[in-house]
Amino acid sequence: AKSKTFAYTVTETGTVAGVTNSAAKTISVTVTDSGTGTLGVSSNVTDNKVIFENTYHADGKAPFELTKKLSGRDFPSGDVWTFTLTGDDGAPMPAKKEVKTDATSGDSQTLSFGEASYKLSDLDGKDTKDFTYHITETGNVTGVTNDTTGTTIDVTVTVTDNKNGTLTATPVYSRESKTFTNKYDAQGSLPLTGTK
């Protein structure tokens, strides 16, 4: 019996945003002459089907920032407040989880934790998912009363699959201004004495 093998390459063309195409497939077909007037044909393809399985992926980012404001005076060197970012239930986090004020002038400073990155797998098979975070202020400076509206700002990030390889990650802060405002209130005393 004589036989010959033929190799064919099947490729997929076309692009869809967020989709990785499957690799090219090689098909081997072997034709065998049995010497009886018939040809036998075999291949490395199961059920004569070539299957291309593409992978969809999507990602997105959300920034985390806040403003520290002083009412009543400017920042001098040495004023330090610390802000800590925490996430609930394994929420994706940015690289920085803690930032500190270091301003030496002006009455406000904007601080950034950076961006948290989200992947399609973070959505647990859903089209949209909310992630909850908390920014907490700590620290005390003489003569300054910390923000009376509270030491924590909550952040809800709604992550949505746009079905085009991107995720929209929209943060909403419990305080729209994203601001912690502390108040400076100098106090002093003057001893008075008198004689009669």
Task: Please tag this protein with its features.
196 residues, 14 strands, 4-stranded mixed beta sheet, mainly beta, 5-stranded antiparallel beta sheet, rod-shaped, 0% helix, single chain
Question: Could you explain how this protein is built, in words?
Answer:
The chain is mainly β and 196 residues long. It is built from no helices and 14 strands. It has a 5-stranded antiparallel β-sheet, with no helix packed on it. Strands 9-6-14-11 form a 4-stranded mixed β-sheet, with no helix packed on it. Strands 1-3-4 form a 3-stranded antiparallel β-sheet, with no helix packed on it. A hairpin with a 5-residue loop joins strand 3 and strand 4. The termini are far apart. The model has no long low-confidence stretch (mean pLDDT 93).
Major sheet: size, sense and barrel closure?
5 strands, antiparallel
Q: What's the shape?
A: rod-shaped
Q: What's the arrangement of strands in the largest beta sheet?
A: 8-7-10-12-13
| Strand proportion | over 45%
Helices and strands, in N-to-C order?
A: EEEEEEEEEEEEEE
Question: What count of helical segments does DSSP give?
Answer: 0
Mean pLDDT: 93
Query: What does the radius of gyration come to?
Result: 32 Å
The end-to-end distance, rounded to whole angstroms, is 136 Å
- Give the fraction of residues assigned to helices: under 10%
Strand elements, count: 14
Spans of at least 5 consecutive residues whose pLDDT stays below 50 are none
Helix-and-strand structural type: mainly beta
